[in-house]
Description:
The protein is mainly alpha-helical. It has helices at 8-14, 18-22, 29-39, 42-46, 59-69, 84-101, and strands spanning 48-51, 55-58. Helix 1 packs antiparallel against helix 5 (59-69). It starts with 7 loop residues before the first helix and ends in a 16-residue tail after the last helix.
Amino acid sequence: MPGPGPRRFERLLIERDPIWRREVPAEQQPLLKELDALLDDPFYQGFLIYVHPRGIRPIGYHIARLLDRNPRTPFAIELGLHNLHTTLYRRWIDARLRQCDSPPSAFPQDNTTTEQR
């Protein structure tokens, strides 16, 4: 589905913008209907994933976004177990606790003594 414009696939497939959909050539309409049917699958609409910096969105959104970025490039989506509440979160908590245990960082010293005041 060739065509110019930023966020083209996002507007066509996710937002389903009627103006953009009318501009799709008649010979490409069956392909658009096929893509709509695929993205209407509950997996693509309901399976939420986090992608930095886009945040938590349905996987169908991220697929359309990848099509906008590189429409002719084949891509694969690999899902991995997040480690927010395992590794990263624990390391962050440990670092914060170490900061509490350590002496204060170098503050400007008052070089005057009480006798000089």
